[in-house]
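Teaching assistant here, posting this on the class forum so everyone can see the example we discussed in section. The complex has two components, and the goal was to see what a joint structure prediction looks like when all of them are supplied at once.
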Amino acid sequence: MTRAPLISRAFLERLERLTIHWSKSFPGLVGGHNPSRFAGPGQEFLDHRHFHHGDDLRAVNWRAYMRLEKLFLKMFQIEPRVPVRILVDTSESMTTGSPSKFDYARKLAGALTYVGLVRLDSVVIQPFGAGLGDPITASGGRHRFSPAADFLTALEPRGASDLMAVSRAFIGEYSQRGLVIAISDFLDDGDVRKPLQLLADFGHELSLIHVWADEDRTPPWDGELDLVDAESGQRLQISFNESSREAYTRSFDEYSEALKRLALRNGGRYVGLPVSMPVEDAIFGPMIRTRGVA
Amino acid sequence: MFLFNLGLGEFLALFAGVSGVVAALYLLDRSRQKHRVATLRFWVHTDAPSEMQHRRKIQQPWSLLLQIISLLCLLLAIAQLRWGSPVALTRDHVLILDTSAVMNAQTGGVRWIDQSRAAAKAWLAAVPKGDRVMLVRADALPTAATAFESKPAVIEEAIAQSRPTSSALRLADAIRFAEQAQAAGGRRRGEIVYAGAGRNAGDNLANAAAVSNLRVLLVKSELSNIGFRKVGLRRNEGGDRAWEAFFTVRNDGPRPRTVPFVLLFGGGLMGQRTLTLAPKSEQSFSQTIRTEAAGILDARLTANDSFPGDDRAAIELPTQSRLKVAVFSDEPGLLKPLFSAHARFEAVYAGVSAYNPSVDAALIVLDRVPAAALPKSPTLLIDPPKGGPVAVAGQKRNASVDVWHNESPVGAGLRSRDVKLDSVSVFETKPGDLVVAEAGGAPAVFARSAPRLVAIGFHPLRSALKYELVAPLLFANALSWLAPEAFLRWELNAGAPGDVTVALDEEPRPGTVTAKLDGGGAVPFSVEGKTLRFFSGSPGVVRVNDGRRERVFSLTLPDIAANVWQVPETVRQGVPRELEAPAVARDLWQWLAFLGGAGLLAEWLLFGRARRLFLARGASPAAAWRKAS
């Protein structure tokens, strides 16, 4: 039996015109299409500076020397090739809700990977749960999308999530700073703000894509509920009514707001996406508005 | 307060069952719902106290209570809870108004039907408010004039519109009809009231005394009447263009009567006599009427009695048209006795040479005519020569007719001894021809439907057959087949509507008998052996035709029942001052149904899925996204 493709061809064609954007400039990285504040061997003129011993004579502005009899060096803007790393949450909590948050996250990751490949970015898809899973690196153009799509399709949700352990492992694994796109429901037992702050402090640019099901934000149930945590299996028996629902939604919104503040404070981005919104609408709507892609 | 539709036990059993189902569904619906969630992080912030600690099973007792009370109301509505006593139910009465023919009679200048109407209205005034009354008009067939009505004005209107009919009363049928109507009415049985003269044609009134709720309102019905009971006319079998009229007159009065009888036709006096009848007796007599004309035969009795409706009988005599026969023969003397023997034939004779195919006659006889073409009218061919329109296969000398086909209508009843004929022509027949007789294995006599003809291969009156009975019978059969209307016999009867029994001459073949109204409509009838029966509920003329005889029944005489019902002493009589007036029980089911429906609606809005749907709609995904991003 053949599986349905992760992303339809029509959607991929619409993604061709998009580019993954980041704000930070990362030292030591060349190539790519995002402008950098660092000077280097680029095509676009940046500034002049005085010549110092050891500078490349090819960069001397000889016309200025003829006029002013001083050596000035032309500086060019480099186009760094920033590594794009997409963190995909594969914990059990992603399987709740309808449609599944996990499927939604996979499609979203696939779409962003394709956008990066079209612009010759190097995209690493890094699944995570309690720790980091086996990643896949996709680079070299759009024709390399197929392995990445197969990788995403083959992912299976399991276990709990531990973002602190994941952050530590990520810093240890990827010493080169870059753009980190985290697609998750960010529902960890601990405080997820600390591990995310750790990533930002290390120098990564955070782009948080918060995925939730409608029942995650506004549970539709009433009365006596017997709740089971999808990750830990813990049970909670609770009486739920209208005022409880309002309090629950308020807590959820406060949590989302905290994530948003953390991302923006560190120069990153935050997008909250309910799974009831189609992935195509999410890419061409909220993602573009927050300039995660453009 | 009582339940009309259900017993208390039935109601309690139903209520217990329904309550159990509701409670089970409630507990199933309100039991702790198990859900798998992404995290418990936000749930712990909800601080609604758990009711589970206090009530182990019922979480929303008001919801359950509301449901059970609502269902109780609906069940009570179905059971038709009523306010009042069960014995205080209103009743269904049936008023049987006699509309038989005799109700046209008068006593003291007042018609009996008017007396009955007055008695019925007086009884109606005594009926308590709330009771329902059905009016049944009773004659030979009981007919409901109204449904069970609680409005006296409707019944009074129906009483005023009731008219006597021509048939006699069958009271037993009417009482049985009333009992069935009361049983089907669904309420308490009230009275069955008969208002009339009690003159009954049926004889099954012995059981009427057993009808406990029967009441009789008899009118003053001293009948001093003398009138026609039957009138019949039949064509005189002698064929001398005369009618034989039969009359039956009855004296219903208590004294002997002498009345003059006159018979008029076309305004002229055809006969008169004086009749003397003993009390409660009938007298029959006949009168011969010689006329060929059509007209109204009017028989009258100058009785001056209390029931003038049966003092006159009128029957319309049909035209006795004669059948024109053209005979072409060079020996007409042989055939003249045949046609002069029947009064309906009017024969015209001509020689063979005068034959013309376009001759104007209803029947044509060609005696040895060398005709090149056949006429359009039915034709009897006697010994036709070769070369004519009928193919002659050959001649047989000294032959005899050895086979007669009695199954064919032309050959019915014919047989002959071994009579030698000098010469017999045999024919070539076509498919569909009826072979009547054979000579030497070849058709010697045959009949053909189109064109209608009978061909005889010999002259019956010139051969040795002229001394045999078969010769006139063969002519009679052939002429009857060619012109059946000439042999059709008439019989006219005047009688009363109702069951009519007709004695046929012979057992008819299927499809040969018809019974029609004068206007052309068919009348249902049954045939058993030689007896035909039909029913006519209203006055009219019915024609019964069996192919040989047409009987006309002029069902216009009123049917006066001879029996007077002797009302048993156990049966209540007369108009009561006032019937027992039960208190009216009040229906509550409308209110209970409304309360039940409103309760269920309120429960649905307050506790049911309506609330959940409302909540689910309030949390739209788009709103959530805007808020969080």
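For the discussion questions: The two ends of chain B are 66 Å apart (CA to CA). Chain B has eleven helices and 37 strands. Think about how each of these relates to the inputs above.
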